[in-house]
Every structure is written in structure tokens, then in C-alpha cells.
Amino acid sequence: MNDALATDGRDIAVTVDSVSKRFRLANERRTSLKELFVRGRSSYHDFWALRDVDLQVERGTTYGLIGHNGSGKSTLLKLMAGIHRPTSGSVEHAGRVSALLELGAGFHPELSGRDNIYLNGSILGMPKKKIDEAFDRILEFAGLGDFIDSPVKVYSSGMYARLGFSIAVHLDPEILIVDEILAVGDEDFQRRCFDYLAELRSRGVTIIFVSHSLALVQTMCDRVAWLDHGRLVAEGPAIEVVDAYVRDVNKRESTRLERTHTVTPDAGLDTSNRKGTGEIEVLGLDVIAGDDGGMAVTGEELTLRVRFRAHSPVENPVFALAFYPEHGQKVAGPNSVSMDLGVLEGDGHVDYHLDRLPLQHGHWKVSIGVTDSTYTHIYDHLDRTASLTVQTGRGPAQGGDVVLPGTWRLSTVADATLEETR
């Protein structure tokens, strides 16, 4: 492997130079000798998984690959790991590569876990002495116990994942390449994996990985490459590239959905949970979003418009909304009690506006209600009749169902001491 050093003085671990990868796919597969003689040989067509990809990964950084399924992420990882060869272009490394790409890849099913540790270490070019030194750490992290001397063909998918990851990270990798394989393990195993990846990063190991968890990519990665149908769309700082990718995904989704989403109870929707005396009737809920193609986006501007019909004059009613995650309890219930609406009669609408939508991405149910100012007389109430799809916002994601609008402030002992001396 050639040592790759960038011309601008940056220390480069992996260089991908004008790489394209072509696969030849059969148009119609012959499944028997008879079909081969009757129909002749199968015809083929070329599928280009990657086209003219250029990127550099600096030594000691964590690098992410994002994109939709089939965008070429896993193919690029395999080229970086040396599993595939590019059809054109070149991939150069500066360091020993360890890869964890597919469940059980590199394992011999008839050999025990112990034998596979030594087999994988030898494939990575590790002398037996170093494997001996790392063996106890590998075994402890994998947590296989007595199964270490059983053939790996009897292992569960979780055991495969634990052993594969433990081997990959404990045999002194200089460049670690990881696919979505970590999704196989349980919660405890995943947390230990991420803790160990953080330790490897602090030791200067270059980490390259694919993940569909954009929050994880933004949290762990220094830089990110976004692939789409085999081509490099963008490359740069993690937060900027992920934000651009999210905007693109949101816009694509908006083309499949109407710009304004209307829920009308009398248009065939389930109204079994409707109750009220009917002086005011809720006609529907319109979702009016901002700049992201008319879609509700976490952290962006949003207006919810309640359309109504007052069949008789009603003085100062209270309109209310309630928000429910797809599987959970109510998280918010704003109402118009602080606003004097006067006397309503005929058709109209009431808008509830948010400068920054606090709901996290996902599918939400919305209840709509109208009562008198004492909340005791219900004119109309539709329980979880409306649906609201919220798309991922920009910037690092946060946990939970809602984003709280608070701010963080730091005070130190030194600050307090300085204040006392004044």
C-alpha cells in the first residue's frame, strides 16, 4: 500500500481517486441445463455502483458515509477495505486496515471462536505473539464465555457481532472500517461499542463508517461524504453535509405529499371518537409549513389552521389542540383561552402558529376541540383524528419526543472567585 500524503500538508489515511465500480448483472438467470440449451446464455447489463468518486480521509479522524439505500455506501466501504477492486481509479491507504462489514465475514463456520480469532489476526497481518497478547481482551469484550471453543456456525447473530467487532478493534487497527453491522447487537453491546470507538479515536485511529442514524453521524464524525446513485453529491463538515442531505430528503418527500395536508372528518375519516353539542363544528385541520416544501420540520416555522362552522352564534369559544406521538401519551395541549375571539358565526378558521416546531420527527396524532371558556361545555371534539408527519430538522438531533427551547449557561469556580474579589 502506498503512503498517501496530501499536497497541502494534511496527513491522509485513505485516498479515493476518481473511483468507479461496475457490476455485471444477468438480465435473466438460467436455473437449469435445459433452459441453457433452449434459451441460450443469459444476457447481461452493466450496473455502475460508483461513478468518479474522489475523497480523502485524514489520519486520526472519524469519517461518515451517508445516502439512501443503494447509493453506493457499502460498495465504497468494500473498496476502501480492499474487498473489491475499482473498475477504474484507485484507492490508497496509509496504515493497517481492519474492517467489520458483514455479519460473519472472514469467519470459518467449522472453526471455533478461538481459532477464528487467530485466523482473522493472521489475515490482518498480526504475528501470533500479538494475537496472544490481545486474546484475553478480545474474549472479555465479546463476552462469549464457554462458547469461545464452539464452532461459530452455532453462534447467534448477536454473538457473531460481538466477536467480529471485538476482533476488529482489539488487533491494533490503524484504519477501522465499519458498516451498519453494529445495529445487530443489543443496547448494552452498542453502547460498549461506541465507548470503545471513542477510545480508539482518542488514540488516533482513523474510523470510517456507514450509518443511517444521522444523529450518530453528526455526533461522531468530523467529515461526511453524501452519495446518491453512486455519485458524490457533497463532502465536508458533518453537520453541514447532514443538514444538506436532510433538506434534500424533506424536499423529495414533499413532492409525494400535498403542500397543505387537510383532514376533513366528513370525508370518510373515522369520527367514532367525536363528541359535542354541535353549535360549532370542526371542518378540518390544515398544516401550513415554511420553506421546506410545505412539510412540518422540527425547529422550523409551522401554522396549524383549524377550520370551523358555527351553526349558531357562539360567544368567545376556546379552541384546543393535543399532540400524541405514534405510541405514547399526550405531550402538549395548547389552547386559545388567553385570546378573546368574540362572537363566532358561520364559517371561519383559527390559526395556531409556532416560530419553531418543538415536536421531534415522526408521525403524530392531533386532537381538535372547541369548548366554552369554562371548558365544561364541549361544542365539538375529535380525538386523535388528524395526522401530522414531522420531518427531521437541521443540526444534531436530540432525544425524546419534543425539543425544549432552553439555553445552557456555564459558571465555574474561577468565575465565582473573581466575582467575590470585585
Automatic annotation (TrEMBL):
Keywords: ATP-binding, Nucleotide-binding, Transport. InterPro entries: AAA+_ATPase, ABC_transporter-like_ATP-bd, ABC_transpr_TagH-like, Bact_Polysacc_Export_ATP-bd, P-loop_NTPase, Wzt_C. The keyword Transport applies. It comes from the Bacteria. It holds the Pfam family Wzt_C. The keyword ATP-binding applies. Residues 31-254 form the ABC transporter domain. GO terms for cellular component: membrane. GO terms for molecular function: ABC-type transporter activity; ATP binding; ATP hydrolysis activity. Belongs to the ABC transporter superfamily. This is ABC transporter domain-containing protein.
